[in-house]
Request: fold
Amino acid sequence: MSTKDITIVITSFKSENKIRNCLNSIDKQYKVINVENSNNKDYKANIEKEFSNVECILSGSNFGYGKGNNIGLRKVKTKYALILNPDAELFPETLNIFLKIANEKSDFAIIGPSIVENKNKLTLNNETKTAKAVKGFAMFLNLSKFNNIGFFDENFFFFLEEIDLCNRVIEQNKKIYYCPKIPVYHEGGRSHDVSYNYQMELSRNWHWMWSSFYFNKKYRGFLISLIDAFPKLFSSIFKFLIFSIIKNKDKKEIYYQRFSGLINAIMGKNSWYRPKV
Reply:
């Protein structure tokens, strides 16, 4: 196997600062497809000028994690694809170990790496084991295994789409491996500029509630999902009222978005909310 076996797919949104650390961590021999969830032509021009191995695709709108990755995955011509978050970074040995494990576990559909939170303190376990799911910050896909599965469910905008994909892989009796000796640094929740933090927090709260209900409905049915959702619904209403009374505007808005996301999911509406940035 060689560098020609892997294409790296990165979906970004307002990630101009963070993504450069990510791209700098990738050996320039590997092709990268960066799907930018906007129509920012300056961003595309700058990234492609700075990184000769990167093809930047402008989606034209903020489609979210799942659909953005699907756009990139459909462009991949190699045997494998590594989905990577903009706030993740590879180590010099990361891709070589992915290829080594892919050779050893040739029946795999997905391989998940170890998350490294401190780049200066690298301690890794060597045991590769089967798993029911892996985290979405870095997912190594054996593309031939997805012909009858498809990629991400585009109804999800954000949250749980990777778990849903893993569920569908397992349902088709295909293999997921978690390999702790593959290191990938992940900052977590920091793929955008800090000036957007509050708007992104509102979006996360809305979509966490929407995605949780949609996911449960998909696998457990509407009635059970509705019963499970009632405590969250009443909690969000209660906290909204409390923060309204004490005039905490930021917290009030957060719990309003939690309520709104859940109500929209219960009503069967799509995941329409977008951060105001």
Observations:
- The chain has a mean pLDDT of 93.
- The two ends are 42 Å apart (CA to CA).
- The first strand starts at residue 6 and ends at 12.
